[in-house]
């Protein structure tokens, strides 16, 4: 993954369930932070059911990376956007696909260092969301990593 980063190439990280793709992705961001002084901002786009898992794994393996959850009601999302995202008090935003679609106008204003999309639990007929994420962010030449 570091070679992909060094050569500005997007990538797909795919293997059997339970082999550590989430940890490998978090490790990449930790490496970029510690060795390359690339602190973010990064965005991790995931199914709603695994937002908490990603936040827990960030906290467990790279607690120095400041993560923000962008999920919840309209009021909760607005508070997170206003108090943490707009002020830049984060390294990584973890957002569900649904919240991404609702908050895309605000999230598009950022120059993301990495866009990571976890599609492992997506149904085949909903992969158009991943296509949307790819189109939305890759037009600005942001490195894109798909975790499948």
What is the element layout, followed by pairings?
Blueprint: H1 2-6, E1 11-13, H2 21-36, E2 42-46, H3 51-61, E3 67-70, H4 74-85, E4 92-96, H5 97-107, E5 114-118, H6 128-138, E6 144-147
Parallel strand pairs: 1-6, 2-4, 2-5, 3-4, 5-6
Helix pairs in contact: 2-3
Structure explained in plain terms:
Strand 3 (67-70), helix 4 and strand 4 form a beta-alpha-beta unit. Helix content is 45%, strand content 18%. Helix 2 (21-36) crosses helix 3. It has a 6-stranded parallel β-sheet, sandwiched between helices. With 148 residues, it is an alpha/beta fold. It has one domain (2-147): 3-Layer(aba) Sandwich (Rossmann fold). It has helices at residues 2-6, 21-36, 51-61, 74-85, 97-107, 128-138; strands at 11-13, 42-46, 67-70, 92-96, 114-118, 144-147. It contains 6 helices and 6 strands, in the order αβαβαβαβαβαβ. The model is unreliable at 123-127 (pLDDT under 50).
């Amino acid at each position: 993954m570091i070679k992909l980063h060094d050569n500005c190439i997007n990538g797909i990280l795919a293997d059997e369930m339970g082999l550590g793709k989430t940890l490998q992705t978090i490790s990449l961001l930790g490496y970029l932070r510690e060795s390359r002084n690339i602190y973010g901002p990064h965005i991790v786009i995931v199914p709603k059911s695994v937002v908490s898992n990603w936040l827990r794994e960030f906290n467990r393996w790279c607690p120095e990376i400041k993560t923000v959850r962008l999920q919840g009601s309209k009021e909760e999302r607005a508070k997170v956007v206003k108090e943490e995202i707009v002020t830049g008090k984060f390294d990584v935003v973890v957002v569900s696909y649904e919240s991404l679609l609702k908050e895309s106008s605000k999230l598009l204003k950022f120059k993301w260092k990495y866009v990571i999309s976890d599609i492992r639990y997506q149904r085949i007929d909903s992969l158009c969301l991943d296509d949307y994420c790819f189109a939305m962010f890759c037009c600005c030449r942001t490195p894109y990593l798909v975790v499948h």
